[in-house]
Amino acid sequence: MTPLIPKDLPAPFGRYSHGVSVPAGCQFVMTSGQLGVDVNGQCAEDALSQARQCFANCAAILRSAGMTALDVVRINAFVTDRAHMADYMKARDEFCAAVTDLPTSTLVIVSGFTRPEFKVEVEITAARGTG
Fold first, then answer.
1. pLDDT by residue (tens digit) across 55-107?
2. 23 falls within a domain
3. Which top EC class applies here (predicted)?
């Protein structure tokens, strides 16, 4: 993967790349949107804990394909309030702490999810060379 950060664009607002180029012949993994629900069906009340659980769930899916955060090329996230942005970004930055070639990242504020206690949802696209 090659991060794309053109000099004729402003710097990204956080730890992400404006674009990512993925070479031909890569294996792709795409997660469904993951909510902050653990294996026992429990959901924390606060946005930071939910975001961390979302990323933990995504990491479990990546592991099942032999991938890690180092293979992530795109993160899409959704929060129910601007007040949750900082907590989400903290969890994203923790998830990407060891990543040097940062993925793209989009955050959207939505009116809600399937249950009112959900505050954050995260979906990930990862790619890894097959050679």
1. 999 999 999 999 999 999 999 999 999 999 999 999 999 999 999 999 999 99
2. no
3. hydrolase
Residue whose entry in the numeric block shows the structure tokens 């949750």: 84
Question: Which residues form the domain of 47?
Answer: 2-18+28-129
25-44 b/e (C-beta count within 10 Å ≥ 16 → b): eeeebebebbbbbeeeeebb
So what's the pLDDT on residue 11? 87
The reply to whether 113 falls in a domain is: yes
pLDDT tens readout for residues 34-52: 999 999 999 999 999 999 9
User: What whole-number distance in Å separates Cα of residue 33 and Cα of residue 19?
Assistant: 21
> Helices (H), strands (E): how many in the chain?
2, 7
Split into its structural domains, the chain has a count of 1
CA distance 123 to 116: 19
Q: What is the CATH number of the domain that holds 108?
A: 3.30.1330.40
Q: What angle do CA 109, 45, 47 make, to 5 degrees?
A: 35
